[in-house]
Amino acid sequence: MAAATGTDVQLPPFRESISSLAFHPSNADLLISGSWDSNVALHDLAAPSNVRRIAMRGAVLDVAWGTSDLQVYAGGLGKEVKSLDFNSSASSVIVRHDDAVKCIEYSKDLNSVLSAGWDSTLRLTSPTDPTSSTVVHLPGKVYSLATSATKIVAAMGSRAVWIWDARMLKDALEKKGEVEPWQKRESSLKFMTRAVRCMPNDDGYATTSIEGRVAVEFFDPASSAQAKKYAFKCHRQVIEGVDTVYPVQGLAFNSVHGTFATGGGDCTVSIWDPLAKKRLRQFPKYPSPISALEFNSNGTRLAVAFSEADEGGVKGNGNGIIIRECGDECRPKAKA
Questions:
Q1: DSSP 3-state helix, strand, coil percentages of the chain (rounded to 5)?
Q2: What is the pLDDT of residue 3?
Q3: Under 8 Å CB-to-CB from 57, ≥6 apart: which residues?
Q4: Per residue in 30-62, is it b (16+ CB within 10 Å) or e — as a string?
Q5: Which residue has the higher pLDDT, 256 or 336?
Q6: Residue 237: how many CA atoms within 13 Å on its side-chain side?
């Protein structure tokens, strides 16, 4: 199995599974990670061996960058979202949930930390006034949350997908009115959703499932736009004549090229062109199943997290993050 090679960088190993990754929105060298070892780690790719950590209460399930350079948000099995400052190593609780916090996003436009989880709620909390948290009750546990320039997408149990228009949501928050979704959908995938991510051009989103499939969907409800949606099989292998299907846990869009990466329980990562509906590249196998993926802000690097405890993993193969340099392999092929 492939370890870091060539220009790739392997970060120091982890004791437990890696749950989440987030590159800084403007500094392409800064990466944060959340782990089941109850730590949030800050990695500076200019000095990859130097890792700074802040401990949480319970396993960390998601992380997001905040309002300043070294300020982040994190949540997990501790049922709370914390603001962490890597300048001072200080931390403070900004909102509590009734169950595990599975997803966190920060919206500058809404001036809110968006947190969602297994208590079937979406909570919008002002980082400057945590007492003003708004609670949105949902029909099921939230497994993944994504934001774009104008949309917020939550993928939940029973294949439910709710979409909010950010401008309508901002207006509702300011007027303290009812927070209603713009659209309520059912996932195109027949099995449980693992990840959802929005397209960089704000046209739609992609979802992955436990059953080796990806769906590409579009926000525009018009029939002409909905006719463009599609789904495809991936991360499958024939082992001793049996078709083995793996969950697709990792999903990330390249903000420069509009392509996206998927990572599965088969320990592989593939790059896809959503418009051409083609796979551009499949990387050699990583040591363990892929648990998270993230491109940096300028689209030149892909962080690949692998975790041995994930489905399909083998104890002893390890947990880690490899930073892969992305050149033309993430660029859509020119039309002939």
A1: 5, 50, 45
A2: 54
A3: 38, 78, 80
A4: bbbbbbbbbbbbbbebeebeeeeebebeebbbb
A5: 256
A6: 11
